[in-house]
């Protein structure tokens, strides 16, 4: 019997991999990982305050997604988008001036540049690694959204503690009184959520964390199809990604995790 070998995973933990990917795509192209915001808007906003303008939102690994602009259009005023790919941030800045028309300007600062400047009609875009967001203050956000970043960090074979660092950083920047961490992932509940809870409570044992599974469509059945939106339901409880199979017990959670 002939066995087919599994192709190696892309180097998701490498800045060079993502820079090359976004450079090849060009400044005018956008890539929506998993699904557009409108597909989860109702579920996501149901866990937030009625006045969305009060919520301070952090989008992890924004890439060239329209998520930041969509949040701005839907009424959120305080939005920070981060990605460790400079190419992705430059591409976002090149496009955002035309994607959020008729909205007031927001201050925009690059992580490497301490001088702020105004970027008309854009969210705040910062280049930084989600495993080290020291440029962001403690307790400075009410909402953190991860659309595939934890999956990429889990798949980084060069950094076995990257996911732990990421979750610890998310916990640090979230305000403790009442905040929400949304995780959208190809991983199962069993391989994602327990890890998030264990890491968060280890950093802040005083936190009360309540996991909630959001009802969304299947977004890919393995790493090869991750990011390919499919409008069908999926049994996530039995689902595993290739990275999960390679690293059983090291990773965690899908859905929304809130300490409310």
Automatic annotation (TrEMBL):
One of its GO terms (biological process) is methylation. Pfam families: Methyltransf_11 (PF08241). The keyword Ribosomal protein does not apply. It comes from the Eukaryota. Keywords: Methyltransferase, Transferase. GO terms for molecular function: S-adenosylmethionine-dependent methyltransferase activity. Residues 59-181 form the Methyltransferase type domain. Belongs to the methyltransferase superfamily. PANTHER family: CITRATE SYNTHASE-LYSINE N-METHYLTRANSFERASE CSKMT, MITOCHONDRIAL (PTHR12176:SF83), SAM-DEPENDENT METHYLTRANSFERASE SUPERFAMILY PROTEIN (PTHR12176). This is Methyltransferase type 11 domain-containing protein. It comes from Aphanomyces astaci. The lineage of its organism: Eukaryota, Sar, Stramenopiles, Oomycota, Saprolegniomycetes.
